[in-house]
Specification:
This is Histidine kinase. InterPro entries: CheY-like_superfamily, HATPase_C_sf, HATPase_dom, His_kinase_dom, HisK_dim/P_dom, HisK_dim/P_sf, Sig_transdc_His_kin-like_C, Sig_transdc_resp-reg_receiver. GO terms for molecular function: phosphorelay sensor kinase activity. Keywords: Phosphoprotein, Two-component regulatory system. With 549 residues, this protein is α/β, with parallel strands linked by helices. The protein has four domains: 55 residues; 161 residues, Heat Shock Protein 90 (2-Layer Sandwich); 142 residues, 3-Layer(aba) Sandwich (Rossmann fold); 156 residues, Response regulator (Rossmann fold, 3-Layer(aba) Sandwich). It contains 19 helices and 18 strands. The strands form three sheets. Strands 1, 2, 3, 4, 5, 6 and 7 form a seven-stranded mixed β-sheet that branches. Strand 14, helix 14 and strand 15 form a beta-alpha-beta unit.
Length: 549
C-alpha cells in the first residue's frame, strides 16, 4: 500500500521541485512553494494513516539495531531547530546512569520523540523545550536490559484534564480549534501510544494550563557492546584526555538558560567550567581573571551575532592582551533549514559559531582540536554547501536508471539532466542489465534502480549484475542506488543486502539527490570511495518531514 500511495505522489512532488528551480516571478514562486509545503503535509498524513493502519492490523514489526542514545535525541532536536528559531530554547540532558549505546527499534523511538518534541515546539510560543533521558530504576529489568525514560517538558499552553483524556484518541486533538490554528490529523499521539505499547513500554502526560506540559514514555532496551560502541567511547575519552593537558581546560559559559548551562556542564564535566547568565557578568569575571591562569574558551549562548562579535572585541581589547589565545564559541539556533552540529569560522577573529544544542563528542572534539592542533591536525571547518554549481564542477559520467512507472521515469530523467548528466533509461531490470552488458566496463558512473518493477525488480537486477561483474572481473564495481516508495527499514536492508550501495526513498528531494550524486562524483568509482560507502547513506524520508500531532 505504501508503494501504491507514495509513487504517484512522488512524481507530483518531484515535478514541483523541478518547477521551483526554473525562472519564476515572485508570485509564481510563492504558489509553487505553497504547493510543495502542501505536498509535504499530505505526505505526513499518508504516512500517519499507513502507520496507524499497520498498528491496527498488528502488521507493524519492530526492527532492532544498535544506536547511541545521544544521537537519537540530537537527531530529532536538529530536525526541529528551524521550527524553534528565535523563540525557543531547545536543549536535552542525558543522565549519567544512561548507557551510551543500546539496542532497540531506532526508527520507532525516533518517531515517538519527533511527535512529542514536535508538538512541544508547536504549542510553545516562548520559553523552552527540554528533553531528558534517564534510567528508570523503579521498573524491573532482566539481565542485559534497562528501562529508559524519555521526558519532554515545555512551557507551552498547557492542557486541562478534559484535554488530557482526549489526547491519545485517534483523529482527536485536545482542542478542536488547534486543528485550525496548528494543523494536523490528530493521529500522532495515538500512533505514539501504540508504538510505545508495542515496544513494551508506557506513555503519559502531566500538564497545567498556562504553565506547560510534560510528556514521558518508558521503554525497555537492550544494553549494547560492540567494536563500534567501544570505539566511540574511546574517542570521547581521548578528547577529554587531550583537554586535560597540560592542565584542565578552562571554560566560561554565558547563558540565560538553566537547561543549556546544565547541558554544557554535563558535557564538559572534568573541565574547569564557570557559568554566568549575562555578558555584563562575564565582563566582570574576565576583568578579575586578567592576572589568573589563561582562559581557554568562552561559550556564548545567544541568537545575536552582534553580541558575539562585541564580546570578541572586548576579549581582544583588554590591556595587556591576556585573552589573545581565548577562543569564543557562539552557539545559536539556526533560522533556516541549514545542517546542524557544524562549526563555521566568522569574519571576527577568534569567533567560531556552532548550532545548538551541540553533541558531546562534536563539542569535545572541536575544543580539543582548537587547543591542541598539533595533536589533531585538521583543516579549517567550513559550513556545508548545497550550491548546485559545485555539483556541476565535480560530477560527470553516464547514469543508468531502471524505473517502470513512465511518469516517475520521466521525472528522474529531468532531475538528472538538470546536472548535465547523460541518462540511459530502462523500464525493468532485464533492460538495465542488457544496457550494462552493451557498454564497456566503467561506462556508467552510477545506476539508480527502482525496487518494485515487473519482469525483474531492482533487487534481482542488482544481484545478477554483481554476478556478471564477478565473472567479467571488472576492476571497479558499479555503484547502485535503490529507489523505493516503500520506506520500511526491512525494505532498505533487503536492497543493501542484495549489493546495492545506497537507498533513497521517494519522493526524491533535491538536496538528497545532490548529496548522492556528489558522493559518486567521479567516474568510475575508486576503490577508496567504495570502501567509504557508509557515508553515502542518506536520511530516511521521515527525517525530512515535520512531525504529526
Amino acid at each position: 500500500m505504501s508503494h501504491e500511495l507514495r509513487t504517484p505522489f512522488s512524481s507530483f512532488y518531484g515535478l514541483l521541485d523541478i518547477l521551483s528551480g526554473t525562472e519564476l516571478n515572485s508570485g509564481q514562486r510563492e504558489i509553487v512553494q505553497t504547493a510543495k509545503q502542501s505536498c509535504e503535509l499530505l505526505l505526513k498524513i499518508i504516512d500517519s494513516i499507513l502507520d496507524y493502519s499497520k498498528l491496527e492490523a498488528s502488521a507493524l514489526k519492530l526492527e532492532f539495531s544498535p544506536f547511541a542514545v545521544e544521537d537519537i535525541i540530537a537527531d530529532c532536536m536538529e530536525l526541529l531547530l528551524p521550527m524553534a528559531a528565535k523563540k525557543l530554547d531547545l536543549s536535552f540532558n542525558i543522565e549519567p546512569d544512561v548507557p551510551a549505546w543500546v539496542k532497540s527499534d531506532y526508527a520507532r523511538i525516533r518517531q515517538v520523540l519527533m511527535n512529542l518534541i514536535g508538538n512541544a515546539v508547536k504549542f510553545t510560543a516562548r520559553g523552552s523545550v527540554t528533553v531528558t533521558c534517564a534510567a528508570d530504576t523503579h521498573l524491573p529489568s532482566p539481565p542485559g536490559e534497562i528501562q529508559l525514560k524519555f521526558t519532554i517538558q515545555d512551557t507551552g499552553i498547557g492542557l486541562t484534564s478534559t484535554d488530557v483524556d482526549q489526547l491519545f484518541v485517534p483523529f482527536q486533538q485536545a482542542d478542536n480549534s488547534s486543528t485550525r490554528r496548528f494543523g494536523g490529523t490528530g493521529l500522532g499521539l495515538s500512533i505514539s501510544r501504540q508504538l510505545v505499547k508495542l515496544m513494551g513500554g508506557a506513555i503519559g502526560v502531566q500538564s497545567e494550563v498556562g504553565v506547560g506540559s510534560m510528556f514521558y514514555f518508558t521503554i525497555p532496551v537492550k544494553l549494547h557492546d560492540s567494536e563500534e560502541s567501544r570505539a566511540a567511547l574511546a574517542d570521547l575519552e581521548k578528547y577529554k584526555g587531550v583537554l586535560m593537558l597540560p592542565i584542565a581546560t578552562s571554560v566560561l559559559v554565558i547563558s540565560q538558560s538553566s537547561a543549556t548551562v546544565s547541558l554544557l556542564s554535563t558535557m564538559l564535566s572534568g573541565l574547569l567550567v564557570t557559568s554566568v547568565s549575562s555578558i555584563d557578568d562575564a565582563r566582570r569575571i574576565l576583568q578579575d581573571r586578567v592576572s589568573n591562569p589563561p582562559l581557554d574558551f568562552v561559550i556564548l549562548d545567544s541568537q545575536s551575532e552582534h553580541r558575539a562579535d562585541e564580546l570578541a572585541r572586548f576579549l581582544h581589547g583588554v590591556a595587556g592582551d591576556p585573552f589573545k589565545d581565548t577562543k569564543l564559541i557562539h552557539i545559536y539556533t539556526p533560522t533556516t533549514d541549514s545542517l546542524s552540529g557544524h562549526t563555521t569560522l566568522t569574519d571576527t577573529p577568534g569567533v567560531i559559531r556552532m548550532t545548538k544544542p551541540p553533541r558531546r563528542t562534536r563539542l569535545l572534539q572541536m575544543l580539543a582540536i582548537i587547543k591542541h592542533p598539533e595533536v589533531h591536525p585538521v583543516t579549517t571547518p567550513v559550513a556545508p554547501t548545497k550550491d548546485d554549481s559545485l555539483l556541476h564542477r565535480t560530477l560527470f559520467g553516464n547514469v543508468l536508471i531502471a524505473e517502470d512507472n513512465p511518469v516517475a521515469q520521466n521525472l528522474l530523467i529531468k532531475q538528472l539532466e538538470r546536472f548535465d548528466l547523460h541518462v540511459i533509461a530502462t523500464s525493468n531490470g532485464e533492460e538495465a542489465l542488457a544496457e550494462w552488458e552493451a557498454h564497456d566496463p566503467g561506462y556508467f558512473s552510477v545506476a539508480l534502480f527502482d525496487h518494485h518493477m515487473p519482469i525483474c525488480d531492482g533487487v534481482e537486477a542488482c544481484k545478477r549484475l554483481r554476478v556478471l561483474e564477478n565473472k567479467r572481473r571488472v576492476p571497479k564495481t558499479l555503484p547502485i542506488v535503490a529507489l523505493s516508495a516503500d520506506c520500511q527499514e526491512s525494505t532498505k536492508q533487503l536492497c543493501l543486502s542484495a549489493g546495492m550501495n545506497a537507498f533513497l526513498s521517494k519522493p526524491l528531494r533535491k538536496s538528497d539527490l545532490i548529496s548522492l550524486l556528489s558522493a559518486f562524483g567521479t567516474s568510475p568509482m575508486t576503490e577508496s570511495s567504495e570502501k567509504s560507502l557508509d557515508s553515502v547513506m542518506l536520511p530516511d524520508r521521515d527525517q525530512n518531514v515535520k512531525p504529526t500531532d
